[in-house]
Design brief:
Length: 372
């Protein structure tokens, strides 16, 4: 009997859904390629069955697509949170308890003084009859008076005119402009921790000289957060010090989002991204060395951290390929059936040709089979 109970407990534990025990982390490349659709639908189906809610942290422009994929599995309660990092973090949690509804207050009783008077039946009071009018008194005629000259008529002084209205209006004092509100840094930091670090507190300050290639910088007013992904769990810091966000060592990913692509050089003399606008639109791409920081960044962002060993030339690009360009390098993502293959691009690529369509800061879609 005891053995049967153990076997039954083991079977129940094995059948427990995976989503209830751990979070679901989908990379940006996997989400955009459709590889995470099945995971999202499974989470939606299981959450709908259990009555729990699904909390998703992802970039705002992905919210509609993510919610549709989750609800395709079941009518789950989905809560979307803005995330600056280009991946999808999904967790399933219990729904918060609804606050108790306030009980209606009893209507206050009227006080005796507030009661409406009611007519009481009975005899009405009668008024006394009017008395007869008294006879008019007899007035004797006044004695005769000698005629005198009439008194002179005195005219009343003419009223003085009031001053014009313009002189009576008081001079208005100039309004004082209100002082600008001071931003609540603590509230901003809490919002960034919720969206970037799953509600966990940041580890502390990080100097500008401590930035590494691959770090992400997120700006919210006067607060700058740094997210570093060394493993499956990201690390978060507050950037300490002045940093010109126009520097060439930073790549702009979107509104208030940047990525460090080269070590930050010291000193006051540095290049700006605007300095590169006059350069040619052609990219000379080659396979980066194994120890190049840019290679590790590209392999992490576009191949889930795995090594990219294949190469492809510019002439062999074809329609539907995706090209991610960087400084002297580019990664090509090609769908072959249900599989995604990554290549290092070799050769000179004209980024302004009609066969390429820009789809992001450093992302291009190949829309023609003839690429030069």
């Amino acid at each position: 009997m005891k053995v049967r109970k153990l076997l039954l407990a083991a079977a129940l534990a094995a059948g427990a859904p995976v989503f209830a025990q751990q979070n679901v982390d989908i990379s940006g490349t996997e989400f955009q390629s459709g590889g995470g659709d099945a995971k999202l639908a499974t989470v939606g189906r299981e959450a709908a069955k259990s009555g729990k809610r699904v909390v998703v942290t992802a970039p705002q422009e992905w919210h509609g697509k993510i919610a549709a994929k989750i609800r395709a599995g079941g009518a789950a309660d989905v809560v979307m949170k803005d995330g600056f990092y280009e991946n999808v973090l999904v967790r399933v949690e219990e729904k918060p308890a609804e606050p108790p509804k306030p009980e209606p207050k009893p209507e206050p009783k009227r006080v005796a003084s507030e009661r409406v008077p009611v007519d009481v039946p009975g005899p009405k009071p009668t008024l006394p009859p009017p008395s007869e009018p008294a006879p008019a008194p007899v007035v004797s005629a006044p004695p005769p008076v000698a005629a005198t000259a009439p008194a002179p008529v005195q005219h009343a002084p003419a009223p003085q005119a009031s001053p014009p209205a313009a002189q009576q209006v008081a001079v208005a004092k100039p309004a004082v402009a209100p002082a600008p509100a001071t931003p609540d840094v603590a509230k901003i930091q809490k919002r960034l921790e919720d969206s970037l670090n799953n509600g966990r507190e940041a580890e502390g300050p990080l100097a500008v000289s401590g930035l590494r290639p691959g770090d992400f910088i997120f700006v919210d007013g006067a607060v700058r957060a740094v997210v570093r992904r060394e493993s499956l769990r990201p690390r978060m810091f507050w950037l300490d010090g002045d940093l010109d966000l126009r520097r060439a060592e930073l790549k702009e990913l979107g509104a208030n989002r940047y990525q460090v692509i080269d070590p930050i050089a010291g000193g006051t003399n540095y290049a700006l991204r605007e300095d590169r606008t006059a350069e040619s639109k052609s990219l000379l791409a080659a396979v980066p060395p194994d120890n190049a920081p840019g290679r590790a960044t590209f392999e992490r962002d576009y191949n889930d951290g795995h090594s990219i060993d294949e190469t492809i030339t510019v002439e062999k690009l074809r329609s539907a390929d995706i090209v991610y360009v960087g400084k002297g390098m580019a990664v090509v993502v090609r769908r072959e059936g249900a599989k995604l293959t990554r290549y290092w691009l070799e050769g000179t690529l004209d980024l302004g040709q009609p066969g390429l369509q820009k789809d992001g800061t450093n992302k291009y879609k190949v829309i023609s089979d003839t690429i030069r």
